[in-house]
Amino acid sequence: MANQGNNIKVVCRFRPPNSIEKREGGDICVNFSDDLTTVKVSGAAQTGPEANGFTFDRVFPMATQQKEVFDYGVKDIVADVLDGTTAPFLRTVRQEAERHSR
Fold first, then answer.
1. Is residue 100 part of a domain?
2. C-alpha torsion 50→55→58→61, nearest 10
3. Class of residue 60 by CB neighbours under 10 A (exposed 0-12, middle 13-18, buried 19+)
4. Which residues pair with residue 58 across a beta bridge?
5. Residue 67, domain member (yes or no)
6. CA distance 62 to 16
7. Number of DSSP helices (H) and strands (E) in the chain, helices first
8. pTM
9. How many domains does the chain have?
10. What does the pLDDT look like over 39-73, one tens digit per residue?
11. Which residues constitute the domain of residue 35?
12. Integer Cα distance of 39 and 49 in angstroms
């Protein structure tokens, strides 16, 4: 099996602004640490858990190519599944509520 005994990886991928967001002048409101493990939200509270940002095993900024995400977080899972190992994969998507309320 490819990597039996893999630990869970928690990653966060950010998509680039879409054409509507660009046209309407949407701002990028996140900053990434140099080691690509922490995300800070611009204008977030300076106290509490948000003050230090949010930490992940890996953060993929807007310019990240699909292959890089696949190689880091998915390739081993696919190999395990093809070898007959059960491998869970969870994907969540969050979009701004404002976009849906217009």
1. no
2. 10
3. buried
4. 11
5. yes
6. 5
7. 4, 5
8. 0.69
9. 1
10. 998 876 677 777 888 999 999 999 999 999 889 87
11. 11-85
12. 12
